[in-house]
Amino acid sequence: APAIVCQDITVPVGSMCEYTLTPDRLDAGTTDNCTEPGDLIYEVSLDNVNYSDEIQFDGMDLLNSPITVYLRVTDEYGNSSICTAEVNLIDDTDPQIICPEDRDIPADENLCVGIIPDLMAEMTVDNCAPIDTVFQVPAPGLLFGTADGDMITVVLTVVDVNGNTDTCGVDLTLRDVTPPVFTNCPAPNVV
């Protein structure tokens, strides 16, 4: 039977949280006394029953990582050996924020200031790992500006459960949309 040698591996998943494991990634120098290395058959399994030439991992596997995988090597005479290895899937891909559009904010009619909206509810995120934290600076509800045309950039940040982050900025422009009103207007002079 082959003298099998396994190795544990740590591998990054793709942007869609996928990874394809092939047996060569787990082999650490397997040999056989009768069969040439190129004639050995390498297979992998998650359950030590169903073996194949590759295993597809996805986002659920990422959350359950590390995963025990079986490597089976068979020589040309049908003799086989099995060992186990740990596959540690890691997410090193930053989430991708799709930021809300820049916008005009109408000034409060009594104060001539704008109120920063909650932009976190409007953004979308494209990523494989669950999002852990979402925040914006300055926070929703804070006031900004004192005159028409004043601007502020609101920075949105997301952090996934693996610590990867992305940020984007939304420019808010204060717009005075309240028409002026005369106060203390003198009555017309009647002659």
- Cα gyration radius (Å): 31 Å
Structural class: mainly beta
Q: Which strand order does the major sheet show?
A: 1-6-5-3
Tally of alpha and pi helices: 1
Order of helices and strands: EEEEHEEEEEEEEEE
Fraction of residues in helices?
A: under 10%
Residue stretches low in confidence (pLDDT < 50, at least 5 long) are none
Proportion of residues in β-strands? 35-45%
Distance between the termini: 121 Å
Query: Could you tell me the number of beta strands?
Result: 14
How would you describe what is shown here?
By secondary structure, this protein is an all-beta fold. It is 3% helix and 40% strand. It has one helix at residues 59-63, and strands at 9-12, 19-21, 41-45, 55-57, 67-74, 80-90, 96-98, 103-106, 114-115, 124-126, 131-137, 143-144, 151-160, 165-175. The strands form 5 sheets. A 4-stranded mixed beta sheet has the order 1-6-5-3, with no helix packed on it. The chain has a 4-stranded mixed beta sheet with strand order 8-14-13-11, with no helix packed on it. It has a two-stranded antiparallel ribbon with strand order 2-4.
Question: Summed up, what is this model?
Answer:
The chain has 191 residues and is mainly beta. Helices cover 3% and strands 40% of the residues.
Architecture blueprint of SSEs:
Elements (H helix, E strand, L loop, with lengths): L8 E4 L6 E3 L19 E5 L9 E3 L1 H5 L3 E8 L5 E11 L5 E3 L4 E4 L7 E2 L8 E3 L4 E7 L5 E2 L6 E10 L4 E11 L16
Parallel strand pairs: 1-6, 8-14
Antiparallel strand pairs: 2-4, 3-5, 5-6, 7-10, 9-12, 11-13, 13-14
